[in-house]
Structures are given as structure tokens and as C-alpha cells.
Specification:
There is one protein chain. The chain is globular, with a radius of gyration of 19 Å. It is of the alpha/beta class. The protein has eleven helices and 15 strands. The longest helix is centred in the last third of the chain and has 14 residues. Strand 3 and strand 4 form a beta hairpin. It has one domain: Adenylosuccinate Synthetase, Chain A, domain 1 (3-Layer(aba) Sandwich), CATH 3.40.440. It binds inosinic acid (IMP) and magnesium ion. The site of inosinic acid has 21 residues, from helix 5. The site of magnesium ion has 6 residues, from loops.
Length: about 325
């Protein structure tokens, strides 16, 4: 496995949390390194009937042996981070880079007023204003905060050393390709590029170190906040199909459309994806719920997957059939 980058091919909320947790456990990752913007992300992980919600700690926390790092590209809210560390009892495994930018109260205030709130409809988590301050060279860094001192570690140094030692490393991107500051539907985007190359930069690895880029697509598309969503269904239709979801961070009803092959193709290109993880297949085809063998999927579900593989010219190697980590089809071995 070596170095695997996990990215979202649509607008976020595809279920990266589940895929990252599964890979950390299954492939016994030495390190799970969090990339992406910051606590605007909300990840849900379900295992053994327990639901975990995370905004700062990498989803690899589910494997007790995995070290959990936050790369220098990520904006950190110390309050949220420290609370999650205590809640999940991961003190001894967490490391944050001295150069993570720190979200302060004034960033939250700016993010919750003016055009960011009313027009862009951000998550209000302060990440955009914090990144603006970073660009202005006035943001505070993690190294300046005594309460973070015991967690400070050279994340790029640790990640590259683990790769030199042939250990498995997962780089966890956040948000989604089409809310990237560069490649998304500007101005209705987040405050950074969030594609695979940016994720590498966030944790301090060069592009030559990456072995696999797993692109995560949900079986349908959702979007929260403002901005174009081609093929958008009415809220009533979204509910009728059972596709209604509510944001982990904001509680907002997500907008939805059917799987979009054009967007998916471009996302594969932008991220240099090598494999596809398809999530929530059971929401489209309820008979697939909990299935762990490909052969047992219904005909329609198999045809849908075949169509994705043909159109995107990539293998669908992981298939989510329910919220829990155990509800997954892992076809990777078949392709080795
Ligand atoms: P910001 O990242 O909070 O500045 O929000 C900018 C846009 O990105 C808004 O439309 C948010 O709803 C969206 N967004 C930010 N983070 C996520 C995420 O983790 N999942 C889905 N949408 C997100
Ligand atoms: Mg989310």
C-alpha cells in the first residue's frame, strides 16, 4: 500500500471518514495524516454500533496503533482539537505541526457575518478568514500556543521517515474536488485547493512519494451551501428518494442530484486517481445493505458499478454498503 491519498471527487461528504478508517485498520497504517482546510470538515465514523464525529483528528484514530498527525497546511481550532483528543483518548498518538495556522475568535466572527455567511454560506468555522490571515502573514502558528506544546511534532519529517521505512501512510484530504479554491465552482468554494496534490503539500510529501490516490464518490451527489449543482433535485424529491442528509458541522439539509459522470471524470483527472471508492450504494439499492461480497449485489447495482468503471476507466475497488466500517466490499486483492 505505501502512501495512499484519499480525496473526495464531488462536493464533500462522500464518506471519506469511513474509507480512511477502514484503510487504517485493514492496512495497519503507521500514520494517518490529516490534510485539507480545517474544522470546517465533519467526518462520521461508525464501528460496532458506535458513531464517532470528528472535525480535527484524522479518521485513522479507529486503529489504536495508528499515529494521528495534522499537517502544516491545516488550520487548527485548539478548542475543538483538545476536546476531540480528550474525548477519543488519543493523547499519546496525536501530533500537530508547529506551522499549523490557528483559528482565533475573530476568524469565527468574520466567517459568521457579511458575504461569507450570506452569499457563500460557509460553515462558519473560521477557516477562510484564518487562511486569509495566513496569506497576509499575520496568522498565529501552533508553535506559539503553550497548550499545544506537548503535541507539536515535525509532521513532514515523520511522514517521510515512515515512508522511507516502507510503512503504510494514509493522507486524509477533506472537503471535495468541486469546492476547491482552484478547481471548484468559484466563488462558492472553500478557502484552499483540496485536491490530491494539495493534500500532499499540506502534510509535506512530494508527488513522487504517492502510490495510490483513492477517489471517493457517493452513489449520488450532495452539496451544502450555495453554488451550482447540475441536475439538482427538489428537496421533496430528495426526501422521497431517501437521499436526505444533514451536515455534520452545520446541520443543514444537503442538496442532492444523481451521480454525475461528467463531474466524476474531471475529478479523476484533477486528482490523478488510481482507484475508486464508491459509498452509500445501499441508499440507491436497499437490497445491498450490509453486503460484503460483490457477487451478492443485485443486478442493477452491479450494472451501475460497471458503468462507472467503463466511463471513468478506473476500478471501483471499495464499495460501501452501509454506514458501519464492517459494511464494505473490498475488491482490491482481486486487482493485484
Ligand atoms: P468554508 O469551507 O466553511 O469556507 O465554506 C465554503 C463552502 O464549502 C460552503 O459551501 C460550505 O458548505 C462548503 N464546505 C466546507 N467544508 C465542507 C465539508 O467538509 N463538506 C461539505 N461542504 C463543505
Ligand atoms: Mg463531511
Amino acid at each position: 500500500m505505501g502512501c495512499t491519498v484519499v480525496v473526495d471527487g464531488f462536493f464533500g461528504d462522500a464518506g471519506k471518514g469511513k474509507i480512511v478508517s477502514y484503510l487504517s485498520l485493514k492496512d495497519d497504517a503507521e500514520i494517518c495524516a490529516r490534510a485539507g482546510v480545517g474544522p470546517n470538515a465533519g467526518h462520521t465514523v461508525v464501528m460496532n454500533n458506535t458513531t464517532y464525529k470528528l472535525r480535527m483528528i484524522p479518521c485513522g484514530f479507529i486503529n489504536p496503533k495508528t499515529r494521528l498527525f495534522i499537517g502544516p497546511g491545516v488550520a487548527v481550532n485548539p478548542e475543538i482539537l483538545l476536546k476531540e483528543i480528550a474525548e477519543h483518548n488519543v493523547e499519546r498518538r496525536v501530533g500537530i505541526d508547529p506551522q499549523c495556522a490557528i483559528i482565533e475568535n475573530r476568524h469565527l466572527e468574520i466567517d459568521r457575518s457579511g458575504h461569507l455567511s450570506s452569499i457563500i454560506q460557509t460553515t462558519g468555522s473560521g477557516t477562510g478568514p484564518c487562511n486569509a490571515d495566513r496569506a497576509l502573514r499575520i496568522a498565529k502558528m501552533a508553535r506559539e500556543f503553550p497548550e499545544l506544546k506537548r503535541f507539536i511534532i515535525d509532521v513532514p519529517g515523520e511522514v517521510n521517515r515512515a515512508l522511507d521505512e516502507k510503512k503504510n501512510v494514509i493522507v486524509e484530504a477533506t472537503q471535495g474536488t468541486y469546492i476547491s479554491l482552484y478547481h471548484g465552482t468559484y466563488p462558492f468554494v472553500t478557502s484552499k485547493d483540496v485536491c490530491a496534490s494539495a493534500a500532499c503539500s499540506d502534510v509535506g510529501i512530494g508527488p513522487t512519494r504517492v502510490d495510490d490516490v483513492v477517489i471517493v464518490f457517493k452513489s449520488y451527489v450532495t452539496r451544502v451551501g450555495a453554488g451550482d449543482l447540475p441536475g439538482e433535485l427538489s428537496p421533496d424529491e430528495v426526501k422521497r428518494r431517501g437521499w436526505d442528509e444533514y451536515g455534520t458541522v452545520t446541520g443543514r439539509l444537503r442538496r442532492a442530484s444523481p451521480f454525475n459522470f461528467d463531474l466524476a471524470k474531471r475529478a479523476v483527472m484533477l486528482n490523478g486517481a488510481t482507484q475508486i471508492a464508491l459509498t452509500k450504494l445501499d441508499v440507491l439499492y436497499p437490497s445491498c445493505k450490509g453486503i460484503t461480497e460483490f457477487e451478492k449485489l443485485c443486478r442493477e447495482a452491479k450494472e451501475f458499478i460497471q458503468k462507472i468503471e467503463e466511463e471513468l476507466k478506473l476500478k471501483v475497488s471499495l464499495i460501501g454498503t452501509g454506514p458501519s466500517l464492517e459494511e464494505i466490499i473490498d475488491r482490491r486483492k482481486a486487482y493485484l
